[in-house]
């Protein structure tokens, strides 16, 4: 019974995509199907979290070929919560897309591609096999390639080209890294790989391939110095698409980094820890400076993704129970908040025709509800109590103080201040100042649907971040249990490879 | 044989990188294709190269006789080649459309979304 919860979260988006393709003539069916399938996936993913929290691990050996020979699907607490929060976001954005995605894009199979994207993301979270992780990445990427460039406008094609090329290079490095690891260890099952490395006498010979994977996942996650493609492409598609990208796709890279350095490459982690620490701090700093220097709402938000990714990788670099719990909490918080901010920017475009801060203004007066809905996620991202971002940053900084990594903590605090600065810039320019004369582009001429469809998911996400901030204890204790699981890879290994349990050291 | 293939992988990566460094988007595509083929060949070679030694189990045995080819890298490469073909096709279509939209083959003209 437990296995079905895992299998269904994976299969339902695929079934949805296929049935939407079959019924592609009816636009109403596309819209309804996109929402129904993503919502049911969300409900099932909550059940998966419940099941995993009670059973610790849910493992499926596909085709009943036992690991390490077969393909394993594994859900531990970390992957379950990632699936849940990404499905939550998927359902919210599907509702938003009702109003924003026009007919032309719907006819070009927006919703089937969207569901395939969720399918690939869920698969990447749930797989227990390195090569399958590559395949899931590709499924996710192919869908995202089409989504980012399907509009066919100049900016979208240009941003899409950059996005596609950099992600292809990252996939190539992933493939090369996985191939070399297979050549060295003879296995690709993550648990088997971790087991072989944990009992090996000398593990330094996998550092080269772990570095290839670090570069590949770093490119996908957008860490320093591989982030430059992200702010060049994420602001080009419609906000519904860039919200999904901003919320989800970089987090899959972060997830892969966590998975590889807490499980597969845990034995060599001490060797690469200083490198990851430096990369995390530089990611935070460069991202926030980029954000501070820009003057377009969506570009500022794109740079913020980069700096926030730095916080999560910082949690990985500290590698204490509290730091990992903080990073998991941060991932959940950031997916919700960043998606929300991109959705708000879509409403701003809808109302004002532009996201350029020089051209918009006066939103506080003309749309006070939107101002409140922007205020909440923006200040949550900046880390103002009692919103969810405060607890995430607080736990991360506390864990840094515990291990006395003073310069990283100082950087994290300063970046928090600068984040707040660039958020107040958006607030002051777009919401507070007067609407500038003579440059207003005016509202979009032919809006697709009602604005209520856009505001409902924004409100839900904003309420969620307040809720996590006020009553975040259950989530944080869940994150602590997930971190404990991550720090104890032997449990994962014996869950996937029962035959090896008795020979474990 | 392995060292020859290793040199070939190196040549593919080097040529691909050179093409990526050029300013034409067509060469960009060629570079991506060459590099991905280099990676495919690399994965293929990691399994060891053995001619005429398939991993077939004899009728009365439990394992194939000692030096046998490893089928897993070949299966992986097959998957990677298929994925690579799909992505190349998409990339070509995208480059064509982007070329129409921007009106230039020069990557320096693709700077409207840069930050």
UniProtKB/TrEMBL annotation, chain A:
Membrane-spanning ranges: 6-23, 35-52, 78-97, 109-127, 133-151, 163-183, 203-228, 240-258, 274-297, 309-332, 369-392, 404-423, 451-471
Residues of the NADH:quinone oxidoreductase/Mrp antiporter transmembrane domain: 128-419
InterPro entries assigned to the protein according to its UniProt record, in alphabetical order: CPA3_Na-H_Antiporter_D (IPR050586), NADH_UbQ_OxRdtase (IPR003918), ND/Mrp_TM (IPR001750)
Membrane topology summary: Multi-pass membrane protein
Coiled coil: none
Keywords: Cell membrane, Membrane, Transmembrane, Transmembrane helix
Superkingdom per UniProt: Bacteria
Subcellular compartments: Cell membrane; Membrane
Keyword Transmembrane helix: yes
PANTHER family registered for this protein in UniProt: NA(+)_H(+) ANTIPORTER SUBUNIT D1, NADH DEHYDROGENASE
Similarity-based family: Belongs to the CPA3 antiporters (TC 2.A.63) subunit D family.
Protein name: Na+/H+ antiporter subunit D
Organism of derivation: Coraliomargarita algicola
Biological classification of the source: Bacteria, Pseudomonadati, Verrucomicrobiota, Opitutia, Puniceicoccales
Automatic annotation (TrEMBL), chain B:
InterPro entries xrefs: CPA3_antiporter_subunitC (IPR050601), NUOK/Mnh_C1-like (IPR039428)
UniProt-recorded name of the protein: NADH-quinone oxidoreductase subunit K
Keyword Cell membrane found: yes
Membrane disposition: Multi-pass membrane protein
A Pfam family assignment: Oxidored_q2
Enzyme Commission no: 1.6.5.9
Family label: Belongs to the CPA3 antiporters (TC 2.A.63) subunit C family.
Record-annotated membrane-spanning stretches: 6-21, 28-52, 72-95
The entry's keywords: Cell membrane, Membrane, Oxidoreductase, Transmembrane, Transmembrane helix
Gene3D superfamilies tied to this protein: 1.10.287.3510
Keyword Signal belongs to the record: no
One GO molecular-function entry: NADH dehydrogenase (quinone) (non-electrogenic) activity
Species the sequence originates in: Thalassobacterium sedimentorum
Protein's cellular compartments: Cell membrane
Matches recorded under PANTHER family: ANTIPORTER SUBUNIT MNHC2-RELATED
């Amino acid at each position: 019974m437990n296995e079905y919860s895992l299998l269904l979260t994976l299969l339902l988006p695929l079934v949805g995509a296929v049935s939407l393709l079959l019924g592609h003539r009816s636009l109403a069916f596309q819209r309804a199907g996109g929402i129904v399938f993503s919502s049911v996936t969300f409900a099932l993913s909550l059940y998966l979290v419940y099941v995993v929290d009670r059973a610790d691990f849910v493992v499926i050996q596909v085709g009943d070929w036992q690991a390490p020979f077969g393909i394993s699907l594994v859900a531990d607490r970390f992957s379950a919560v990632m699936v849940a929060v990404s499905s939550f976001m998927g359902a919210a954005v599907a509702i938003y897309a009702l109003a924003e995605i026009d007919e032309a894009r719907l006819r070009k199979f927006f919703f089937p591609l969207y569901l395939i994207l969720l399918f690939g993301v869920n698969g990447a979270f749930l797989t227990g096999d390195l090569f399958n992780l590559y395949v899931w990445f590709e499924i996710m990427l192919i869908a995202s390639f089409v989504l980012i460039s399907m509009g066919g406008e100049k900016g979208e094609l240009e941003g899409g080209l950059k996005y596609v090329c950099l992600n292809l290079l990252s996939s190539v490095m992933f493939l090369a890294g996985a191939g070399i690891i297979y050549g060295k260890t003879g296995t690709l099952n993550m648990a088997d790989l971790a087991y072989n490395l944990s009992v090996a006498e000398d593990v330094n010979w996998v550092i080269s391939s772990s570095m290839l994977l670090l570069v590949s996942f770093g490119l996908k996650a957008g860490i320093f110095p591989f982030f430059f493609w992200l702010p060049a492409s994420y602001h080009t598609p419609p906000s519904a698409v860039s919200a999904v990208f901003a919320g989800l796709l970089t987090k899959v890279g972060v997830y892969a980094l966590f998975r590889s350095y807490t499980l597969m490459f845990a034995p060599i982690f001490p060797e690469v820890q200083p490198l990851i620490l430096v990369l995390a701090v530089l990611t935070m700093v460069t991202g926030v400076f980029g954000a501070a220097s820009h003057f377009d709402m969506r570009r500022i938000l794109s740079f913020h993704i980069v700096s926030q990714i730095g916080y999560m990788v910082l949690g990985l670099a500290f590698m204490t129970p509290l730091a990992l719990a903080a990073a998991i909490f941060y991932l959940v918080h950031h997916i919700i908040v960043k998606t929300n901010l991109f959705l708000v920017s879509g409403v701003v475009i809808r109302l004002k025709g532009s996201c350029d801060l020089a051209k918009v203004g006066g939103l506080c007066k003309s749309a006070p509800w939107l101002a409140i809905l922007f205020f909440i996620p923006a200040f949550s991202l900046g880390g103002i109590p009692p919103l969810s971002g405060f607890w995430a940053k607080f736990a991360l900084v506390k864990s840094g103080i515990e291990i006395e990594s003073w310069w990283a903590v100082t950087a994290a605090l300063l970046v928090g201040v600068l984040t707040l600065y660039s958020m107040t810039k958006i607030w002051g320019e777009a919401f507070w100042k007067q609407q500038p004369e003579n440059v207003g582009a005016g509202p979009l001429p032919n809006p697709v649907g009602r604005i209520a469809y856009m505001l409902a998911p924004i409100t839900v996400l904003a309420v969620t971040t307040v809720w996590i901030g006020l009553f975040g204890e259950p989530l944080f204790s869940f994150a602590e249990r997930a971190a404990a699981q991550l720090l104890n890879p032997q449990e994962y290994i014996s869950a996937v490879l029962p035959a090896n349990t008795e020979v474990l050291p | 044989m392995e060292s020859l293939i290793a040199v070939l992988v190196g040549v593919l990566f080097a040529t691909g990188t050179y093409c990526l460094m050029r300013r034409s988007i067509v060469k960009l595509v060629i570079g991506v294709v060459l590099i991905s083929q280099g990676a495919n060949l690399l994965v293929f070679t990691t399994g060891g190269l053995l001619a005429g030694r398939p991993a077939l189990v004899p009728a009365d045995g439990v394992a194939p006789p000692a030096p046998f080819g490893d089928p897993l890298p070949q299966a992986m490469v097959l998957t990677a080649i298929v994925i690579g073909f799909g992505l190349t096709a998409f990339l070509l279509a995208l480059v064509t459309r982007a070329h129409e939209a921007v009106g230039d083959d020069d990557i320096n003209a693709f700077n409207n979304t840069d930050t």
